[in-house]
Amino acid sequence: MIRIAPAGRVLAVAAVASLALTACGGGDGGETAAQQQTGSAAPSSAAPPAAKGDGTLTIGTVLPQTGSLAFLGPPEFAGVDQAIKEINEAGGVLGKPVNKIHTDSGDTTTNIASQSVDKLLAQGADAIVGAASSSVSESIVDKITGAGVVQFSPANTSDSFTTIKDNGLYFRTAPPDKLQGRVLGDLIAGDGNDTVGILAMQDSYGSGLASQVSATAEAAGATIVERVDYDPKAAEFSADVAKIKAKNPKAIVLIGFEETSKVIQELVKQGLTADKHQWYMVDGNMSNTNYQDMPKGTLKGVKGTIPGAAAPEDFRKKLLEINPELEDYTYAAESYDAANLIALAAEAAKSDAPGDVAGKLMEVSKGGEKCKDFKTCVDLLKGGKDFDYDGLSGPVEFNEAGDPAVATIGVYQYGDNNQYPGKALEYRTGNIAG
After folding, report:
1. Torsion of CA 101, 107, 109, 111, to 10 degrees
2. Three-state DSSP state, 200
3. How far, in Å, CA of 368 to CA of 388, rounded?
4. What is the SS3 assignment for 184?
5. Residues 207-244 pLDDT 10s
6. Neighbours of 390 (CB within 10 A)
7. Before 131, cis peptide (omega within 30)?
8. Distance of alpha carbon 330 from alpha carbon 308, whole angstroms
9. Phi/psi at 147 (nearest 5 deg)?
10. For a tag site, which of 77, 160, 372, 401 has the least CB within 10 Å?
11. Distances 263 to 68, 196, 230, 412 between C-alpha atoms, Å
12. Quick one: DSSP state of residue 340?
């Protein structure tokens, strides 16, 4: 069950039962620490080569500097940078400063992500934070986990990663879309919309999220009168929007990335404006920068969902010292948490070997005394105490699939200036299992 909390407050939820999945067998007949956790529905045909640590934890990133999610790159890079800054100020990992290597993920129209992964693997990355796009991550997960390296995404929300073959090496701080879809579907129906049209980009993220929104909204009594899964690389979207217009829904759901600005322009052109139809958006297109050239008020009243708690004000101030030009903070906290969890797992394992790090990620995310930053947690560890890293983005308690077991979804609303405020209208918290 998903329960609603007043704005700025998260309700307590029951602990989620772990999802039991098959572990991958080791090549020598034994079971490594990493193989004790897996997101695979079935064992992979062969175990990855055992990547060995060299005593220095190296965290690489493959995050969007270019492409359709480029607006998410700055807060994600800043989140990683802030975490590593604090980690190194606290003495580093295994007595040495953490090494970081930033690379671009691009999007699915390019081969940038694959080239970036090759670079990171060649430079000895123990863990790779990224990608932001679920489809991009799907294109590189085999290369990363097949090399025996940890992949940790701060923003992948496609449900497919819950059962993807990852050799126990894939984790994420963003919750699967089953939760965001449930929240958005309930929100749409709860706002009194009994007819709904959906425009979703055609990929694992867009189509998967659209299906969950549809199922939830229909269960709540709404009717999906039209759903269009479009090509995000299309030059224009007039025919797609015309299909929605023909059904005249009360609510229009927009699920996409940067191309959403073109979709919005077409909606306005065909008279389906936000003051006549209630628009809803999602984390992939909720942006404070993409719609600034549109007439004032174009997005007024538009609601959208973003996984995770809003970045705290003091954290935002720290990020602005890293990057004074930041305007969006989406997935900054999740990126910060990802880097901290990797570092804490290495400390707990007393090793930077990726398999050892992966084998400790579940342990450092649950049980024990709660702590929210690397120094506090590592001091507890060195004092012989069990600790539980509760991140800025939420509890971050991993289940057997490497997904956060419990997560928070924020509901935001755009104002006159085509921007949404940093404070959510409300938060809805739920477990991933149901």
Report:
1. 20
2. strand
3. 5
4. helix
5. 999 999 999 999 999 999 999 999 999 999 999 999 99
6. 17
7. yes
8. 9
9. -85, 0
10. 372
11. 14, 17, 10, 20
12. H
Burial class (CB in 10 A: 0-12, 13-18, 19+), 4: middle
Contact 286, 69 (CB under 8 A): no
Task: Give the contacts of 424 (CB within 8 A, at least 6 positions apart).
Answer: 7, 8, 310, 410, 411, 412
Distance CA 241, CA 143 (A): 38
H-state helical runs in 128-248: 134-146, 177-190, 204-219, 238-247
Per-residue pLDDT of the chain (434 residues; tens, 9 = 90+): 333 333 333 333 333 333 222 223 333 333 333 333 333 333 333 455 667 889 999 999 999 999 999 999 999 999 999 999 999 999 999 999 999 999 999 999 999 999 999 999 999 999 999 999 999 999 999 999 999 999 999 999 998 999 999 999 999 999 999 999 999 999 999 999 999 999 999 998 999 999 999 999 999 999 999 999 999 999 999 999 999 999 999 999 999 999 999 999 999 999 999 999 999 999 999 999 999 999 999 999 999 999 988 889 999 999 999 999 999 999 999 999 999 999 999 999 999 999 999 999 999 999 999 999 999 999 999 999 999 999 999 889 999 999 999 889 999 999 999 999 888 999 998 887 65
Angle between helices 238-247 and 260-269 (to 10 degrees): 50
pLDDT digits (tens, 9 = 90+) for 117-138: 999 999 999 999 999 999 999 9
**Location of structure tokens 């570092």:** 343
Give kind and range of the element (H or E) at residue 103. Answer: strand 99-104
Which H helix or E strand runs over 336? helix 332-349
Eight-class DSSP state of 160: G
Helix (H) or strand (E) holding 313: helix 313-322
Positive or negative, the Cα torsion across 310, 313, 314, 315?
A: positive
Q: Which is nearest to 342 in space by CA: 176, 175, 173, 177?
A: 173
Residue type, 302: V
Please state the φ and ψ torsions of residue 152, each to the nearest 5 degrees.
-135, 105
- The residue type of 298 is T
- Cα 356 to Cα 128: distance, rounded to the nearest angstrom: 15
Length of the chain: 434
Distance of alpha carbon 177 from alpha carbon 350, whole angstroms: 34
What the block records as the tokens of 12 is 């307590």
pTM: predicted TM-score of the whole model, two decimal places: 0.83
pLDDT attached to residue 431: 84
